[in-house]
Amino acid sequence: MNDLEVRQLRYFVAVAEELHFGRAAARLGMAQPPLSRTIRDIERQLGVSLFERTTRQVKLTAAGEVLLRDARTALEAVTAAAHRARQAGSASPRLRVALKADVDGGLLPQILDTYGADDASLPAELVLGGFGEQPQALRDGLADVGLVLCPFDSRGLDSEPLLTEPVLVALAAADPLAAHTRLCLDDLAGRKLPDGSPADHGRPVEHAPQRGEARPASNLSEIFSLVETGSIVFFAPASVARRYPRSGIIYRPVSDLPDATLAVAWPQDARSPAVAAFVRAACSVAAAQAERLLQSTTT
Q: Full-prediction pTM beyond 0.85?
């Protein structure tokens, strides 16, 4: 029988991500010998080699690469199924909305008001997370719908764009670049973003840390405190910049930095009337705001 158990998939993914049996065993909280036996059992079941093992390194084979991709998807589905089943069986079901605090383009209060007036609405619960964490929360079943910054990992998700706005760079007021009215990415050479990446590489949206990466500052107050000291710079959508005026920070446009697009996203297999109601509300509010902005620029 070739069916793999969830436990086997978890063990395999740990080894595939760590590429080291000792580290994988420590991550799983188990001894290395039974982990090695389980991997050999999986290979026997499937009739393929998943890893190339030498005394110096462990590498995935082509078969291992394929299994890793599909195993991650399968484990995400199992986790999401459990979370969604608990939510569906709750005595007081709610619509869980994933977002990064203040990264909503200023639309959230109006979206919630419009959504709440829909007959299909449920009480909304905000699921706050760091930059880039919302898509995974949707895949894991920890949220039902989310407000996300593009681009994002859209595996298993549908989305609709809501608004697009310029991205500004936040600089310490004492930074020599603050004397310029407009910058380009090359001007930011030598400066770092909160995740440690070079600012002149132009990553406009913070990303969720990958396994093994240190978690960068994600609280906006913490980020702006670091900006004020000159330790980092920060790329912020214009709506975030408007919400955080600080005497120690100057915002400047960056001519070759892409605009930021806010989208509403939800799992592709979602069938909830409440999710549909939230998406309708978000699109309606965003369209109304875009119309108001258009009218203000033509009058």
A: no
How many angstroms separate the CA atoms of 38 and 41, rounded? 5
In the chain, list all ranges with CATH 3.40.190.10.
Answer: 90-165+260-298, 167-253
pLDDT digits (tens, 9 = 90+) for 104-141: 999 999 999 999 999 999 999 999 998 889 999 999 89
Three-state SS for 145?
strand
Interatomic CA distance for residues 73 and 4, integer angstroms: 14
Axis-axis angle for helices 21-28, 32-46 (nearest 10): 110
Phi, psi at residue 170, to the nearest 5°?
Answer: -95, 125
| CATH of span 90-165+260-298 | 3.40.190.10
Average pLDDT across the chain, whole number: 88
Give the whole-angstrom CA distance, residue 56 versus residue 58: 7
- Cβ atoms of residues 61 and 50 within 8 Å: yes
Fold of the 6-85 domain: Arc Repressor Mutant, subunit A (1.10.10)
Please list, residue by residue across 244-280, b when 16 or more beta carbons sit within 10 angstroms of its beta carbon and e when fewer do.
beeeebbbbebeebeebbbbbbbbeebebebbebbbb
| Portions of the chain given CATH number 1.10.10.10 | 6-85
Burial of 29 (0-12, 13-18, 19+ CB in 10 A): exposed
pLDDT band at 213 (very low <50, low <70, confident <90, very high): very low
User: What is the topology classification, in CATH, of domain 167-253?
Assistant: D-Maltodextrin-Binding Protein; domain 2 (3.40.190)
